[in-house]
Amino acid sequence: MATSAKTSERPSGAIHPIAPSRLKAPSGRPDLLPMGVWIWLASELMFFAALFAAYFMIRQVTSDKAAAGAQTLWQSESAHLDIPYAAVNTLILVLSSVTCQMGVHAAEHGRVRRTKGLAAVTAWGMREWYTLTFVMGTVFIAGQALEYANLVSEGHTMQSSVFFSLFFIATGFHGLHVTGGLVAFLFTLGRTYLARRFTHEQAVTAMVVSYYWHFVDVVWIILFSVIYIIR
């Protein structure tokens, strides 16, 4: 029994016994996956920074051309956006970061699935929290698609004005990033069903997926403020 305790352990809610050597990172050596993801996110940050720079530059140029006392292009075109609708959609995405972090907390403690009934939220594992996060992200994308459909039905397309060209480009690229995050959640969840043991590597994967998800959430908050609020 003493030997068995040394070779494996079962955290609360874990599916299988976890070998101690697979539960923690090798001492004195950082995980390469998180480091690689941070470097990649830095490059993504530069991409969105360039997008924001182009947005503000074009906005300034068009605003300077407006006649004195007249509405600028940005003021007239942004009036067609449904801000309350977008605010609710934004809230859903922001709250998904909270559920995502709850999933990370569960993964760090080896709690892959819930230990009680579905109604006992405090006993949820990584699967439940990440599934909820996936659903919330999907709702956000569906909401964005519906917003696009409404704008197009009103005649606001990429060709209608430079404002809507930048609107669709900026929010569209962000939507693609959110979709990529949803795929990552499916991969992470699927891996918990295929693997015999929940290991340190799987916990690290769950954490780096959360890094990415928090990143797209922060970018959207900035996008929402710049496009919908600042006129």
Automatic annotation (TrEMBL):
Residue ranges of domain Heme-copper oxidase subunit III family profile in the record: 33-231
InterPro entries for this protein: Cyt_c/ubiquinol_Oxase_su3, Cyt_c_oxidase-like_su3, Cyt_c_oxidase_su3-like_sf, Cyt_c_oxidase_su3_a-hlx
Gene Ontology molecular-function annotations: cytochrome-c oxidase activity; oxidoreductase activity
Entry keyword set: Cell membrane, Membrane, Oxidoreductase, Translocase, Transmembrane, Transmembrane helix
UniProt membrane topology term: Multi-pass membrane protein
EC number: 7.1.1.9
Pfam families: COX3
Reaction(s) catalysed by this chain's protein: 4 Fe(II)-[cytochrome c] + O2 + 8 H(+)(in) = 4 Fe(III)-[cytochrome c] + 2 H2O + 4 H(+)(out)
Locations listed in the record: Cell membrane
GO process terms (BP): aerobic electron transport chain
Cross-referenced CDD domains: Heme_Cu_Oxidase_III_like
Region (Disordered): 1-20
Residues spanning the membrane: 37-58, 129-146, 166-190, 211-230
The name this protein goes by in its record: cytochrome-c oxidase
